[in-house]
């Protein structure tokens, strides 16, 4: 995962843009926003740095593009909170862990966690997303007292789980089966939301 | 918090070393390991970069010194796990949150979280501490099946709580009273450990 250049992928042509984007996700994910450089990303992608600037402009623009997660809270939140109330906690944990089982989602998610926590660049993005998009939407549908604090508590457990399992990769939780984690963490989420 | 230089603290003299260390904790905490520079840290501390090198050597050495947390798992873990078993979860949450209420501990803790998650420098340190020092010690005293996974789950909730409350500072959890968080999160830790 550390080195992707030199894998013999084709150079130039129409896929340069997507190679640059994949390299950016990797680089931001490994070293955080501050540590990643246009030069290093270009090298990973096997292109000239000028081409990175050509397609994406400055580092901040490239990051914004790389961080563009297709998570739509207005679609996902109602979907998860619908269905039997007693299983909402387990559904949330399962939804997140199954999403992260996908390589592309996981790489992008790790990148976002790293940059959100690691420096200045990602924090406003993540905090803005959590505080203005995701959590109020969850809270708005709960119909319980202290809904906003409950949503924060859910975020704390999910964020910590992703951090220990996927970013720090502490064992045995890094390789624990999804079903086991759903069974252990689901009741926590359920209690934060409704008890 | 962003700018500490120019606060009119005395320059030179015997406290240069501790000023540099405090500046390093702040700088690593704000920008992560990769983003912090000896030059920037020297500027915050109001000293010449050569003095930083003189006292601490390279950036990696300065980081190691700044990250030297006085947390002794061999002392703390038995202390917390002693006492009534039914209250262990609450005691763990209270211990951590009360420790973080201290400015110095919080700054250092935020620095470690940021560097652990944000880049390469802190990760081995934090992962090593969690995986070799803290978690096996907790697990070793539990006398329950799957003790190591349980310890990981506890770490995930505590890490996520610290991240959302102190690093990302999402409201309302960032300003929630310690007692309220002990009451809400304590039972989670209790369940992960013993249920």
TrEMBL record, chains A, B:
Stored Pfam families: TetR_C_16, TetR_N
Keyword Nucleus: no
PROSITE patterns recorded: HTH_TETR_2
InterPro entries, alphabetized: Homeodomain-like_sf (IPR009057), HTH-type_TetR-like_transc_reg (IPR050109), HTH_TetR (IPR001647), Tet_transcr_reg_TetR-rel_C_sf (IPR036271), TetR_C_16 (IPR041678)
Swiss-Prot/TrEMBL keywords: DNA-binding
DNA-binding region coordinates: 37-56
SUPFAM superfamilies: Homeodomain-like, Tetracyclin repressor-like, C-terminal domain
The HTH tetR-type domain, residue ranges: 14-74
Protein name in the entry: TetR family transcriptional regulator
Annotated source species: Leucobacter allii
Source lineage: Bacteria, Bacillati, Actinomycetota, Actinomycetes, Micrococcales
């Amino acid at each position: 995962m550390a080195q992707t250049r030199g894998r013999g992928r084709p150079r130039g042509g129409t896929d340069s843009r997507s190679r640059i984007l994949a390299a950016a996700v990797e680089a931001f994910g490994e070293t955080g926003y501050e540590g990643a450089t246009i030069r290093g990303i270009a090298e990973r992608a096997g292109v000239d740095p000028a081409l990175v600037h050509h397609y994406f402009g400055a580092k901040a623009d490239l990051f914004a593009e790389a961080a563009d997660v297709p998570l739509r809270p207005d679609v996902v939140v109602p979907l998860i909170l619908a269905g039997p109330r007693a299983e909402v906690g387990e559904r949330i944990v399962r939804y997140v862990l199954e999403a992260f089982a996908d390589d592309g989602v996981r790489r992008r998610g790790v990148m976002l966690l790293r940059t959100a926590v690691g420096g200045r660049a990602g924090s406003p993005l993540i905090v803005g997303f959590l505080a203005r998009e995701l959590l109020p939407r969850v809270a708005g549908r709960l119909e319980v007292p202290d809904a906003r604090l409950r949503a924060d508590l859910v975020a704390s457990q999910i964020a910590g789980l992703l951090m220990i399992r996927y970013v720090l990769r502490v064992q045995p939780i890094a390789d624990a089966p999804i079903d086991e984690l759903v069974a252990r963490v689901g009741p926590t989420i359920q209690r934060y939301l409704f008890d």
